[in-house]
Amino acid sequence: MATISDVAKLSGLSKTTVSRVINNHPYVSDKKRELVLNAMKELGYTPNPSARRLRGQLTTTIGVIVPRIVNPFFSYLVNSIEQAAYKMGYQVLIGQSYEDKEKELAFLNLLKTKQVDGIIMTSIENDWDMIESYKEYGSILLCNDYVNQSEVPMIRLDQTKGAYLGVKHLIEKGHKKIAYCTGGLFDEQGKGKDRNQGFQKALHEAGIKINPKWIFVDQHTIEDGKQVMKQILEMEDRPTAIFTGSDEVAGGIMIQAKELGLTVPSDLAIIGFDDQPIAEILDPKLTTIRQPVDLMGEKSIEVMIEMLENPKLEIQNYELPIELIVRQST
Amino acid sequence: MATISDVAKLSGLSKTTVSRVINNHPYVSDKKRELVLNAMKELGYTPNPSARRLRGQLTTTIGVIVPRIVNPFFSYLVNSIEQAAYKMGYQVLIGQSYEDKEKELAFLNLLKTKQVDGIIMTSIENDWDMIESYKEYGSILLCNDYVNQSEVPMIRLDQTKGAYLGVKHLIEKGHKKIAYCTGGLFDEQGKGKDRNQGFQKALHEAGIKINPKWIFVDQHTIEDGKQVMKQILEMEDRPTAIFTGSDEVAGGIMIQAKELGLTVPSDLAIIGFDDQPIAEILDPKLTTIRQPVDLMGEKSIEVMIEMLENPKLEIQNYELPIELIVRQST
DNA sequence: TTGTAGGCGTTATCAG
DNA sequence: CTGATAACGCCTACAA
């Protein structure tokens, strides 16, 4: 591999001058600049990022933590982040936390050793204090997930509104017996609390009481959805509609419902979350809440790079639009 | 961030001794080793990978090129690669080529600058000669895609057999008018040639002639599948079954078929490829060819690390099993 | 068994 | 405008 010295030698100039050209510093005569540029081309020279990192320069690499890449929501998010980053000349290092604290910390450690300039976190596993302690080593940005007391930029959606819109839609369709299925818990705090609030708000407004038996927590996969449906079938008093925290769970419910001889939406109306590709594949097509994944990725990179270039940037939060997509399952 | 010098100072020893401990070299007395270990712990010391890279050491980072991460086949593949790598203490840098030669080369350049020890390519865009020229800078391994004249390890599947099994299954079901849908071309060479061969072989064995009108090339998405179905409907002489290069295209075909009032499989039998999650979501469930993605990822990492640790390793190819999963769409 | 010194490729500082 | 030099953190001949 050609080094800066090779370029210097070939062009008959010093490393310093070559470096100036590489980094677009002023005070280089056009002639010499030309000379250097030619030599660089001739040797196929690429600056060595390791050396730059060692010198304390930026790495032009951004880390992204996702719980699991096979979740379409996250693979689309990573996709848009990667594309936006590529356009800006940045690389993306991906890490899956698998909802494991250790893996998350291991990834955050990349900041310490200047392997990445910053990390975009799309989910949070450890306590915020723990994570915040890494801010000293590099930039951290939250995209999708968030915390209240944070001192980092956040790109987020109004999850409360998303759930509210969905449940209100069900109510408008005449449903009063509405079940709820979340990937988190049904607590005041903790995962999924915003959506919980939206759900409660919509019911409250319509004067409908929550039936605790119709609350399903910690549901994630298609398989989970199938199980939920089986549980519902066994109930004496069944819901007529169900709001779900993911298209996949909604899909599982729908598949199982059909298998059990129920008709969607007349026997059971179903609403998903994310507007993943399967929403249009399911039959009937799934009514769902769309999250603007592409926007989230672009914005995250935009803000991250701003932060990197201007470390004193004022911390801001960005809220992106979330909308209801009505299809046939409601 | 603490450096090796800090550890040396704190432990009252030299950098050399500390380095020896870090790298498990012999000739360090137990006492001093203890001393160093304590100092390391106290300072929360982590070796700086950039410095190591600069010194020409391994980076414990492996690059993976995929065409697009949102394709479930690749996101599952990346997932299994990442998991296997993590277990071995390696990091994974992901790049999307978007089937673009430039992007692919940009990623291969990471080898030149020792940013990654090796690269796993799951697809190939540039001419092989071009790619092979990067072998000088680091290890390259092919997983999924392959070339004939290659001098790198390949983890691959018998695509010919996959297509053959699928088409044969259709024939056994009594179909004689069989359409074919590929993501590549219908050439002797080029993308998808193996599956083409399997398709042809199965028909040939059954004495069935190929109808060129029923060959659809360069089809990738659900939307593509829908278009294919529309084209089929317009035909005077329609096929009764279709073999498809991806579950997504198959899904599009199925959705559109139902929309047009056709019944699957009685009006049209459909067979997919990959056994992605949507195969079970579609109604009727999709008969498809399963590719053992997890195995592919694990094996790729296993072989890559072997290669890294023993550069003189004999080049081997590995063929993994591929199987037909019969469901309801045929 | 331990330590000294030099260099990997880059850029900032300082002197011309 | 240009160039010599030191330093980033690590590893390894070589010396002791």
UniProtKB/TrEMBL annotation, chains A, B:
Alphabetized Gene3D superfamilies for the sequence: 3.40.50.2300, lambda repressor-like DNA-binding domains
CDD domains associated with the record: HTH_LacI, PBP1_CcpB-like
Keyword flag Transcription regulation: yes
Xref: SMART domains: HTH_LACI (SM00354)
Top-level taxon of origin: Bacteria
GO MF annotation, one: DNA-binding transcription factor activity
PROSITE patterns reported for this sequence: HTH_LACI_2
Keywords: DNA-binding, Transcription, Transcription regulation
Keyword Transcription: yes
Signal sequence extent: none
PANTHER family: LACI-RELATED TRANSCRIPTIONAL REPRESSOR (PTHR30146), NTD BIOSYNTHESIS OPERON REGULATOR NTDR (PTHR30146:SF136)
UniProt-recorded name of the protein: LacI family transcriptional regulator
